[in-house]
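Example (one chain per record):
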Amino acid sequence: MTKHQLFLVARQTYTNRLKTFGFWSIVLAPILILLVIGGIVFVMDATKSTEKPTVAVVNNASLTTYLKQNKAVGARYKNMPSATKAKQALKRDKIDGYLTSANEQYHLTMSTDADSLSEDTLQSTINQYYMLNQATKLHLNADQLQTLMDPPAFDSTVYNKNGKSSAGGATSNTANSMLAGGLGIFIFIFLTAYVGMIAQEIANEKSSRIMEILLAVTSPGVQFFGKLLGVAGLAITHGLVYVLAGGIFAIFMPKNQYIDMVRDMLAGVDINFAIMTGLLAIVGIFLYMILTAIISAMINDLSQVQQAVSPITYVAMIGYILSFVLEGQPHNLLINVLSYVPFISQTLMPARLGLQYANMTDALIALLLEVVVLIFLARYGLRVYKKNVLTYTDGNITKAALLSLKGLFSKKTIED
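Predicted structure:
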């Protein structure tokens, strides 16, 4: 196996796939989906009604004055002498709702087609009004009332295996959950895309009988590793496109509440976490591609690609699914053990890191185990590939693949 032939096959695989619509559809589809969602949100924000709802306050002039002076609730207020007149005005669409008060109880009635009104903000404003009235009755001055209303100082810290973190509370947990879920989806999409791609690459040449010609001028090792390097280059290009798109988006996209929310969520992601997650994902993708190349050597034609790839996809789904149940079971023994297992750790371990259930030492152990299995598959999987690449199997591909993979642990196969 010469380096020139190896890089020639890798370059040919890379350039041929790079020019196809299928590759760019995989790359651009998530970006287009995000742009469409962003466009819909932008149009909805731009076209939403800015009209303030009109709320009648029944027979409570002081509350009406207080609500008018307080700008927290975006609404117009008017006083009405009775609930009967307020109901009549609501039926005639003269007002959007009315607020009644009796025996220190308040009730808001709003029309179903009324413009939006924040009930939480209105309730908070009424609470302030009620406390002011109570303070007046108790003859409290402004300073005394402010002392009574000031809440005690409270913050929280989260201790994880890396040490102390200032992030804590529900906001931090929500952000970490979203990050862990996003990582699981992103890695799973990469895996399924490039597992199918390497299977099609081998099946194309084998079904058209070109493989016999290629192996006449090159070795199976050149074809095996060349195709893997070419598809790996596509995966890296795919990732770089997303990094570039994210950078452009962050620089030129105007600020809004959704972008600020994403920035806040990613603010706590340090460089060590990003590097470790990237390494786990890349090595995991390489593992799946080598396994797929070994199994794809037994495919007779393109119609069998899905049959061969399905079991591999099912294995990848284990980590993907468990990453969503991880938050509710941080000390589950099975999940913790599986997060170190190659073919699953590339999804589970980053999720555990994101949720602060694991430290960098745990991730490094998972990465080393992935590398060990990667070296084993690359070395001994080639021998299984050589044995099957020119063999045309009848019957069930999955069963034949499982039988063939036993050759990885066969002394006879290793010594050939």
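Caption: The chain has 17 helices and six strands.
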